[in-house]
Write a structure and sequence with these properties.
binds magnesium ion; Malate_synth_sf; Malate synthase; tricarboxylic acid cycle; EC 2.3.3.9; binds acetyl coenzyme *A; 526 residues; TIM Barrel; four-stranded parallel sheet; binds the ligand O=CC(=O)O; alpha/beta
């Protein structure tokens, strides 16, 4: 079988879509695709069990992993001090801005913050290739110069989740996994160059659900290091704990990846989405209040982050905090100050809880995060030696009923308006946007549409007494569409209806939306 690329090609693409990278991708596909499919099917079975009334719990079969004494590999160069990490898409301007931002780490995103068009993912790889070789500088048509600073952030690439295919690359009949495309292309293009610079090939792994899925990634790392003749244990991966099942498998995930593990991250937005997704059909007890009222201090979220810090530090891994959605605004001082204060409070709490660093979404937030962590860390690179004395049970992780707040009409309107406007932007090629002064990306939009689905399909009554129904949501969608100026208003509305109203719940909105991104040349061979 041979690997075929059916997406558009430009001369620059050849720097990353090399024969070596293609060979590595084909190898990963051949060796791992069956297992990826098995694990995706296992996700569906897990969901069916929860819908049928089972609850998540720690797995008795892996108790020995949780009880045994072991640690993960030591921190690799550039990953010991992670007190502030900036995240964002890999377009050229943001690549330069993120690397220059003063953050210790840049999460270069192919997942929540990007629309995975073929051009976005390949151009992103070219930008990373150029940035690593310090040939990324450019001048805009308006004459603005973008130049890499002397000291830049350590790059950590987040490939797509295991659920997404890359339709523009096939081995035989089958599309390859987007996850392995992003990983293989980056690794083949840059591993040696990064090592020569005293850094390394580092990754963030999104949306994992189990130790078994971590084992799949570990196999990918072992295969890739062997294929390129790079010493085993060179790669480092930080795993996002951003699904509910993964909260019950933190130890197992670190254990499977222990020779490559760098830490865990509290991916709060997808975590909330995952909880809604799994318990969406379990009645009123599992209904969360309005999206914007579920904060990090509600009991079930607090239990999750406290367990994460303790688990990481017991195993010698970094615990990295999550994303506050408040976005500064250089044109509006009031919005700006409110955002800075909210983000400061968030980072203050995380540092006090024992995290070793955290995420920001915007360069203007780097200093605040640094200040809050430096106040605790001083000149220490991290606080891994601090092991919080907390004991978190399955019931704590599932204490959804203890979440204060209500479902309101404003909450419903906001979910609809934000969800549709986000999809408009996504369909036009932008996967992260500021809407109503909040950062919205694929994860936050998943919450918006999943809440609407859950409220409709559980006949939830809002605070004003009215019940959320498909008819009501469709009326509000009509109004939203009438207000929109976007050329994507109609397809975005149609998509929202599909993922928030239709009885068949779609596992990820990006799965429903992706076909519209596929280039005609790739469709022709599908
Ligand atoms: C749930 C999760 O997974 S969170 C992680 C995924 N989400 C993200 O990574 C979101 C990252 N953030 C962003 O994409 C952006 O900050 C947005 C979309 C929220 C707001 O972007 P904008 O509206 O462009 O912000 P704004 O106009 O204030 O930007 C000011 C400057 O900062 C730059 N900037 C803003 N955010 C970033 C970033 N994350 N990385 C690099 N540069 C950035 C802009 O490019 C702009 O630069 P310029 O002056 O050279 O043009
Ligand atoms: O990826 C991060 C999240 O919060 O989701
Ligand atoms: Mg996420």
């Amino acid at each position: 079988m041979t690997l075929d690329i059916n997406g558009s090609r430009s001369a620059e693409d050849e720097t990353v879509l090399t024969p070596r990278a293609q060979a590595l991708l084909e190898l990963l596909h051949t060796e791992l695709e069956d297992e990826r499919q098995r694990l995706l099917a296992e996700r569906k079975r897990r969901a069916e069990r929860i819908t049928a009334g089972e609850d998540f719990d720690f797995d008795p079969a892996t108790a020995s992993v949780r009880e045994a004494s072991w640690t993960v590999a030591p921190a690799a160069p550039g990953l010991d001090d992670r007190r502030v990490e900036i995240t964002g898409p890999t377009d050229r301007r943001m690549t330069v801005n993120a690397l220059n931002s003063g953050a210790k780490v840049w999460l270069a995103d192919f997942e929540d913050a990007i629309t995975p068009t073929w051009r976005n993912v390949v151009d992103g790889q070219v930008n990373l290739y150029d940035a690593i070789r310090r040939q990324v500088d450019f001048t805009t048509d308006a004459g603005r110069r973008y130049e890499l600073a002397q000291d830049v952030a350590t790059i950590v690439v987040r490939p797509r989740g295991l659920h997404l295919d890359e339709a523009h690359v096939r081995v035989g009949e089958d599309p390859v996994a987007g996850a392995f495309f992003d990983f293989a292309i980056y690794f083949a293009a840059n591993a040696e160059a990064l090592l020569q610079q005293g850094s390394g090939p580092y990754f963030y792994l999104p949306k994992l659900e189990s130790g078994e899925e971590a084992r799949l990634w570990n196999r990918a790392f072992v295969l890739a290091q062997d294929a390129l003749g790079i010493p085993q244990g060179t790669i480092r991966a930080t795993v996002l704990i951003e699904t509910l099942p993964a909260a019950f498998q933190m130890e197992e995930i670190l254990y499977e990846l222990r020779d490559h593990a760098a830490g865990l991250n509290a991916g709060r937005w997808d975590y909330m989405f995952s909880l809604i997704k799994y318990y969406r059909s379990r009645g009123a007890d599992w209904v969360l209040p309005d999206r914007n009222t579920v904060t990090m201090t509600v009991p079930f979220m607090r239990a999750y982050t406290r367990l994460l810090v303790r688990t990481c530090h017991r195993r010698g891994a970094h615990a990295i905090g999550g994303m506050s959605a408040f976005i500064p605004n250089r044109r509006d001082p009031e919005v700006n100050n409110a955002a800075l204060e909210k983000v400061r409070a968030d980072k203050h709490r995380e540092a006090g809880d024992g995290f070793d660093g955290s995420w920001v979404a915007h360069p203007d937030l780097v200093a605040i995060c640094r200040e809050e962590f430096s106040a605790l860390l001083g000149s220490q690179p991290n606080q891994k030696a601090v092991i919080p004395d907390v004991s978190i049970t399955a019931a704590d992780l599932l204490a959804v009923a203890d979440t204060p707040g209500e479902v309101t009409r404003d909450g419903l309107l906001s979910n609809i308006s934000v969800g549709v406007r986000y999809l408009e932007a996504w369909l036009e090629g932008t996967g992260a946007v500021a809407i109503d002064n909040l950062m919205e990306d694929a994860a936050t939009a998943e919450i918006a549409r999943s809440q609407v689905w859950q409220w409709i399909h559980n006949s939830v009554q809002m605070a004003d007494g009215e019940t959320v129904t498909a008819d009501l949501v469709n009326r509000l969608l009509d109004e939203q569409q009438a207000r929109s100026q976007s050329p994507s208003a109609a397809p975005a509305r149609e998509l929202f209806e599909k993922v928030a109203v239709d009885a068949d719940y779609v596992e990820f909105l990006t799965l429903a939306a992706y076909p519209s991104l596929v280039e005609p040349s790739a469709l022709a061979v599908a």
